[in-house]
Design a protein that fits this description.
Mean pLDDT: 79
Structural class: mainly alpha
Number of strands: 0
Distance between the termini: 12 Å
Number of helices: 3
Radius of gyration: 18 Å
Helix content: 25-40%
Low-confidence stretches: none
Largest sheet: none
Length: 86
């Protein structure tokens, strides 16, 4: 699998809210800050069920793994070496 080099890096920040009532206001405020590329919202379920979309992604990952289209790192050092090579 060939990986193209990155020319621009971005950083993600994940914020978990206890109260949904503030989500809209926080989203609006974030959009006003210079340097924010995008603001996305997602609901996280505590019941640990696998959604149909997650199930499709798991099946896709398994097919890619069977075809050898994955990167396998057995240690944190191997993983770091791989990420450094990107």
């Amino acid at each position: 699998m060939e990986v193209s080099p990155r020319t621009h890096q971005t950083t993600q920040m994940i914020v978990t809210l206890e109260d949904d009532a503030m989500a809209t206001e926080i989203r609006k405020a974030l959009k006003l800050i210079r340097g924010i590329a995008s603001v996305r919202m997602a609901r996280i379920s505590d019941d640990h069920t696998i959604s149909p979309a997650m199930h499709r992604n798991i099946k896709k990952a398994r097919r890619e793994s069977e075809r050898g289209e994955t990167v396998v790192c057995n240690t944190t050092e191997e993983m770091q070496k791989y990420f450094d090579s990107l």
